[in-house]
Write a structure and sequence with these properties.
heterodimer; A: three-stranded antiparallel β-sheet; 8 strands; B: rod-shaped
Chain lengths: 366, 164
């Protein structure tokens, strides 16, 4: 079976190579077309947006408008993102509450008073906008995704909880048959071994919420059409918040032993203690930062790979490369299905581990 | 660089969402589900424990039965043995008794024989005395006729009637 898969892959690779050769010819033929910028396209897809782009039809973008909520100098301003008319280079001004706003690369800024070549944005030498930005609390694409995932989670687990009421003596029925093993897995394989029988009950709701929240957002990111496809768990703000919560919990539940092991490691000579203290101290912060970056990078990387493979078609400007692109992106997507579950598990596992190590009771010096 | 700069809005909404979700799920999902699972596990454990206890009790009972049976068997053995011993003793006692009785009887018989013999002797003596007297009388009568002959006769007679 594995050999077959390997053969298929190899065949696909060879085929795609021949297509590349053919594609190069076609590029030369049509080099007058506007260059397709893969980096921009991919960055646009994995970043946040103020409206939920569904598809392009006949040269027009069809998207789902989302509310823009701004905390400006004059208080709260709200309007729908459709008022920008898909404009993203700061040429369309939206005037609300006596203030003018423009959108540039999915960021909202106060508009300049006068247009410069049709754009109300001014730039510094590195081509970054110098306009002042209001605090942006918009329900963006990712926030929208997050709310959807919340609703989904509440439905799934609300129904799971209700499924027990219908059964006698606590035998799971319906959807609980599917969710219970996952919950029991988190309890028995993540919470209890890392935190210990004594304290795990306090943290179990947090760990369960963390695991399912990350997992469902990861899965939703893999589904490539509206209303999914948001790269929420590949966004540094999302992973940062979760890692920060882990950091806060770890710091607050830590016992005397934990701090002692950081600042004055028992059982080693004094010069070693002095040497270890700054390293251990940095470790307090590095642990949650590694959590944040691991999830962010893994999920973003998955999106980038799939999009890159699809982009091959557009880079080569040939339909003939499509089979290889599709085979590879399906292959990667299947791997991603595994990766998203594993990343959710790793995040939860490490969180449990950090909490457990902060509460560990050392019975003897070592 | 954009990619690693967190947006304030998303930070804000993530914090809100996560805590709302944590609160709601904790109240409406984790508590009931984990509670039910724990209850069920406890009840399963208890059921297993009681089954184990019952099994042990059963085992004890069987062991008791066996012990009682064994004891009964041993008791029967001893009883049989005792009975056999009693039987043997009774037989030997009876034999002894019979022996003594027989000895006694033989002794008595011997005594009786001895006394009979004595009395027979005495009677014989009397008889002999009577006979002697008779002989003497006859001799006297004979003597009256022939003295020599009489003497000879006495002598002969005495010689014949030798007494042991």
């Amino acid at each position: 079976m594995q050999i077959n898969t390997f053969k298929t892959l190899l065949l696909g690779l060879l085929l795609s190579l021949s297509f590349v050769v053919k594609a190069n010819e076609s590029i030369e033929e049509k080099s007058d077309e506007k260059d397709f910028n893969v980096t921009d396209m991919i960055m646009h897809h994995i970043k946040d947006a103020h409206d939920f782009h569904i598809m392009d039809w006949d040269g027009h973008a069809i998207s789902f408008p989302l509310p823009v909520i701004l905390w400006t100098n004059d208080g709260l301003v709200t309007f729908m993102s459709s008022e920008f008319h898909h404009n993203d280079d700061g040429t369309i001004v939206v005037e609300k509450g006596g203030q003018k706003f423009i959108k540039f690369h999915e960021e909202i800024y106060y508009a300049n008073d006068e247009a410069d070549h049709g754009s109300y944005v001014s730039f510094d030498p590195e081509h970054h906008p110098t306009n002042v930005a209001p605090l942006d609390f918009s329900i963006t694409k990712l926030v929208f995704s997050m709310f959807m995932s919340m609703i989904l989670l509440l439905l799934i687990f609300g129904f799971s909880a209700r499924a027990y009421n219908r059964s006698e003596n606590g035998v799971p029925t319906g959807i609980a048959k599917f969710t219970e093993p996952l919950i029991v897995f988190i309890r028995d394989e993540v919470a209890i071994p890392n935190i210990g029988e004594k304290h795990y009950k306090r943290f179990l709701p947090f760990l369960l919420t963390l695991f399912f929240f990350i997992w469902i957002n990861n899965i939703m990111g893999l589904i490539p059409f509206f209303p999914f496809s948001g790269n929420l768990s590949g966004n540094i703000a999302f992973t940062g918040v979760l890692a920060l919560i882990t950091f806060i919990i770890t710091t607050f539940v830590a016992n005397k032993d934990y701090w002692k092991h950081i600042f004055w490691m028992p059982g080693v000579p004094v010069p070693m203690k002095l040497f270890l203290a700054p390293i251990e101290f940095m470790g307090i912060f590095i642990k949650p930062i590694s959590l944040m970056i691991r999830l962010f990078a893994n999920i973003s990387a998955g999106h980038i790979i799939v999009l890159s493979l699809i982009s091959l078609i557009f880079i080569a400007k040939s339909i003939w490369i499509a089979p290889a692109s599709v085979i590879f992106s399906v292959f990667i997507s299947v791997i991603e299905v595994l990766v998203v579950a594993i990343q959710a598990y790793i995040f939860t596992m490490l969180t449990a581990l950090y909490i457990g190590s902060a509460m560990e009771e050392h019975e003897h010096e070592h | 660089m954009d990619l690693v700069t967190p947006d304030v809005g998303l930070l804000f909404w993530t914090v809100i969402s996560f805590f709302v979700l944590l609160f709601l799920l904790r109240k409406f999902a984790w508590k009931p589900i984990v509670g039910t699972v724990n209850d069920r596990e406890t009840s399963i454990r208890e059921a297993l424990e009681s089954a184990e206890k019952a099994r042990l009790e059963m085992q004890n009972l069987t062991a008791d039965n066996e012990r009682i049976l064994k004891e009964a068997r041993v008791e029967r053995e001893t009883m049989l043995k005792e009975a056999r011993e009693i039987k043997a003793k009774m037989i030997s006692d009876a034999k002894d008794e019979a022996q003594t009785q027989a000895n006694k009887m033989i002794e008595q018989a011997q005594i009786a024989i001895a006394s009979e013999k004595k009395s027979a002797m005495a009677e014989l003596k009397n008889h002999v005395a009577g006979l002697s007297v008779d002989i003497a009388e006859k001799m006297v009568r004979e003597e009256l006729s022939n003295k020599d002959k009489q003497l000879k006769l006495v002598e002969n007679m005495l010689g014949e009637a030798k007494l042991n």
